[in-house]
């Protein structure tokens, strides 16, 4: 924000004036400076107006988006706009955004990923489903992968045939590794790590291998 402001030859007072003159927002120069220093953040309306004053997109003013709210704001969408595109009531969408847990159905999930132009990794992170995915993949590689195609398709906006291929390959790779080393999670161990740091590392290895196979 400061870099963009200075490139335009503007002081915080100019930005404050522009926010009021162009958008009717009363924001003091001190508040503008506090935003630049990371001591506060503009709300959705202020961010959109700020982008207009600084001749940029809202996404240019943000660090890498991680949450649904950050991705939505980076796209310059209001909660109502995004809810309408996804096929949800605005209040229902806002509850999910504020909780950090996405509860939409398969069609709504696909619409969400398209509306926010999310990669699969971004989608999983933004919807708060990383741990759910890790546990599902662990079950898929250690038991019958076919039983997890449907749950995975509800979790991920991927074509089912592609998801089937990825889960089958993930299962094959894991089982082959287990036969040769008796462990995929830690060298020299003869048991699968299931708790603590070793368990978390095991899960992350499964997820990383999933991303590699899915090429996303």
Q: Brief overview, please?
A:
The chain has 216 residues and is an all-alpha fold. The protein has helices at 2-7, 12-23, 29-36, 44-53, 68-74, 79-86, 90-99, 106-115, 120-126, 130-142, 149-155, 160-181, 196-214. The longest helix has 22 residues, at 160-181.
Overview of the molecule:
This protein has 216 residues and is an all-alpha fold. The chain is 64% helix and 0% strand. It contains 13 helices and no strands. It has helices at 2-7, 12-23, 29-36, 44-53, 68-74, 79-86, 90-99, 106-115, 120-126, 130-142, 149-155, 160-181, 196-214. Helix 11 (149-155) packs across helix 12 (160-181).
Major sheet? none
Number of helices: 13
Mean of residue pLDDT values:
86
Proportion in helices: 55-70%
Question: Can you lay out the helices and strands and say which pair or pack?
Answer:
Layout: H1 2-7, H2 12-23, H3 29-36, H4 44-53, H5 68-74, H6 79-86, H7 90-99, H8 106-115, H9 120-126, H10 130-142, H11 149-155, H12 160-181, H13 196-214
Helix pairs in contact: 2-3, 2-4, 6-7, 10-12, 10-13, 11-12, 12-13
Pfam family, one: HTH_31
Protein name: Helix-turn-helix domain-containing protein
InterPro entries: Cro/C1-type_HTH, Lambda_DNA-bd_dom_sf
């Amino acid at each position: 924000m400061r870099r963009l402001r200075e490139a335009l030859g503007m002081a915080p007072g100019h930005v404050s004036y522009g926010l009021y003159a162009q958008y009717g927002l009363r924001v003091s120069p001190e508040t503008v400076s506090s935003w630049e220093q990371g001591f506060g953040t503009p709300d959705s309306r202020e961010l959109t107006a700020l982008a207009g004053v600084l001749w940029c997109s809202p996404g240019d003013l943000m660090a890498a988006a991680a949450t649904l709210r950050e991705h939505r704001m980076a796209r310059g969408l209001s909660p109502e706009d995004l809810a309408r595109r996804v096929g949800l009531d605005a209040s229902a969408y806002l509850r999910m955004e504020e909780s950090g847990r996405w509860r939409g159905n398969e069609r709504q999930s696909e619409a969400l990923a398209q509306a926010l132009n999310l990669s699969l990794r971004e989608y999983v992170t933004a919807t708060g489903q990383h741990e759910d995915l890790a546990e599902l993949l662990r079950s898929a590689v250690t038991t019958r992968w076919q039983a997890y195609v449907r749950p995975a398709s509800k979790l991920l906006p991927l074509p089912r045939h592609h998801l089937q291929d990825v889960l089958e390959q993930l299962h094959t790779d894991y089982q082959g590794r287990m036969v040769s080393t008796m462990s995929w999670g830690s060298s020299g161990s003869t048991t699968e790590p299931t708790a603590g740091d070793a368990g978390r590392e095991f899960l992350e290895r499964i997820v990383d291998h999933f991303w590699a196979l899915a090429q996303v």
